[in-house]
Amino acid sequence: MFLDFERIWPSVPYILQGLPVTLGYMGASLFLGFIGGTFLAVLKVISIKPLNWFANFYTSIFRGTPLLLQLILIYHSTPQLIGYNISIWEAGILAFSLNSAAYMSVHIQGGINTVDKGQMEAALSLGISYPFAMKDIILPQAIKTILPSLVNEAVNLLKESALISFIGGADILRRANIVASEKYLYFEPLLIAGGLYYVLVMILTMGANLLEKKLKTS
């Protein structure tokens, strides 16, 4: 086996320029996905059947189809359907956020269901409105319970953000592939890209473990 990292080292800074792009997709999609997932989870637990059906249908669609298909559909079909020339960045954020919201809604719904129903009943009996009771009493306890699941979703988003390279996004994987094509060496740049993803996942996991320990003692 022959490895030639000397030819790759000058291109490492170029690959590293994809780091903020990857983190940008993950961070924005995680934030928007959490908001959307929370909204969907609330729709699933309230006693209004049409809203329950809508939330469950939405979740089934985005969990039942490949993320890559969703990304390609949004990027290539948006100009045809509504006449808007969507950018790669917008298509990526939209696809990842919509998909993440579906998965997060399942986790958040599970967290809500673990909270004693008596707490909501007590809040309502004290005159607290349902939205405020959900926001200030139920959701904080639910989020604390499902933190490991949310971290897992963040890790999945970090890795799945590499799909943006299929539509030309200049992330870590895309830049590694460009270097590979220019140097006619594929193993070395892709190994560097894999190492970057691994380091990011480890940092994210360690940070989440510290946060979980802090929440347990709070």
Notable features of this structure?
MetI-like fold, 218 residues, mainly alpha, 79% helix, flat
What can you tell me about this protein's structure?
Helices cover 79% and strands 0% of the residues. With 218 residues, the protein is mostly helical. It has one domain (10-217): Orthogonal Bundle (MetI-like fold). The chain starts with 11 loop residues before the first helix and ends with a helix. The relative contact order is 0.16. The mean pLDDT is 88.
Taken from the alpha-carbon principal axes, the silhouette is flat
User: So how many helices?
Assistant: 10
Show unreliable segments.
Answer: none
The helical percent reads: over 70%
Quaternary state of this entry equals single chain
* CATH class categorisation: Mainly Alpha
Q: What Rg do the Cα atoms give? A: 21 Å
Series of H and E elements = HHHHHHHHHH
Strand content: under 5%
Q: Given the helix and strand composition, which structural class is it?
A: mainly alpha
CATH homologous superfamily designation = MetI-like
Report on the biggest sheet: none
CATH topology: MetI-like fold
User: What average pLDDT do the residues reach?
Assistant: 88
Number of strands: 0
Q: Tell me the distance between the termini.
A: 53 Å
> What is the annotated CATH architecture?
Orthogonal Bundle
Number of structurally distinct domains? 1
